[in-house]
From TrEMBL:
InterPro entries linked to this entry: ChrB_C (IPR018634), Homeodomain-like_sf (IPR009057), HTH_AraC (IPR018060), HTH_AraC-typ_CS (IPR018062), Tscrpt_reg_AraC-type_HTH (IPR020449)
Keywords associated with the record: DNA-binding, Transcription, Transcription regulation
GO terms assigned for molecular function: DNA-binding transcription factor activity; sequence-specific DNA binding
Protein name as catalogued: HTH araC/xylS-type domain-containing protein
Domain HTH araC/xylS-type, first and last residues per copy: 174-274
PROSITE patterns according to UniProt: HTH_ARAC_FAMILY_1, HTH_ARAC_FAMILY_2
Length: 284
């Protein structure tokens, strides 16, 4: 069977031929022509047009052509269903749909830049989608990170982040506050980037949801605030300012002093003197 579409493919026009050859017709012939020639050549060659306007195999509402192929041919493979939002997000610039969508777009754009011949581009693209299918079939739960603390954070997010937001604070936010505090006590630099890369969510979505339940602060601002709170506790101990800066995760004392003053209006040494004075006044 022959299938025809526009030239210079990137996402859908490689993902769909991959799907056709792997699950619908392994001997399918894929033809790329200039956009204005797709329909005329489809008639001449008796080929089925796809991923162009006003044909059956195309975008429908918010779904892309890959989604239509899955529905039309009743392909229920769980791995294909995992791939669908990744491909849709990459093809429609909706990178919030899947954490992998932006990566697929970047790889596809680079591939199209490197290979200008459409047949060669399709050949290389088939390898990309074979790899993505293997990930979706066997590896989608594997995590790259080796840090036990990051695994713990991911476990909390994976358990609760997908719950529909309600007016009350969700359990994941309550537990995450405790986890963050525990890790600050052991000088862990908690990174939103590291967490979002290993979760099946987009960093923008994670950041947006985080601020709703964490004092209207961004992830970074909240972590800095917690570090300053911890530093205030440590100012009442024997630790030097350099040691406190290290124990609260700042790169050096200068950085610690600058952030501390921004949050409290005083530098750490002044704040410590006031704490000590207040303590003496209380003991009188």
């Amino acid at each position: 069977m022959k299938w025809i579409t526009r030239e210079h493919p990137k996402i859908d026009r490689i993902a769909c031929p991959w799907l056709i050859r792997r699950f619908i017709d392994k001997d399918a012939e894929i033809i790329y022509v200039p956009a204005e020639q797709v329909l005329p050549q489809a008639k001449v060659l008796n080929a089925t047009p796809f991923d162009i306007p006003d044909v059956e195999y195309s975008h429908h509402k918010d779904l892309c052509t890959f989604d239509y192929f899955l529905s039309k041919h009743q392909l229920k493979d769980p791995a294909l269903l995992k791939m669908a939002p990744i491909i849709r997000g990459a093809d429609t610039d909706r990178h919030d749909l899947s954490a992998q969508a932006a990566g697929l777009w970047a790889i596809s754009a680079g591939l199209a830049y490197n290979f200008r011949n459409d047949e060669e581009l399709l050949e290389k693209g088939m390898l990309i989608y074979d790899a993505l299918y293997s990930w979706a079939s066997h590896l989608y739960t594997d995590k790259h990170t080796q840090s036990p603390a990051e695994h713990l954070l991911m476990e909390i997010f994976n358990k609760f982040i997908r719950q529909k937001a309600k007016q009350k604070i969700p359990d994941w936010a309550k537990e995450l506050k405790e986890i963050i505090q525990d890790q600050l006590d052991t000088n862990l630099n908690v990174s939103l980037g590291d967490v979002s890369k290993e979760l099946d969510i987009n960093p923008a979505y994670l950041s947006r949801e985080f601020s709703r339940y964490f004092d209207n602060l961004s992830f970074g601002d909240y972590i800095r605030k917690k570090r300053i709170d911890k530093a205030i506790e440590l100012l009442q101990t024997h630790y030097s300012l350099t040691e406190i800066a290290y124990l609260t995760g700042f790169s050096d004392q200068s950085h610690f002093t600058r952030i501390f003053k921004k949050h409290t209006g005083k530098n750490p040494s002044e704040y410590r003197k006031e704490l000590q004075k207040g303590k003496k006044d209380t003991n009188r």
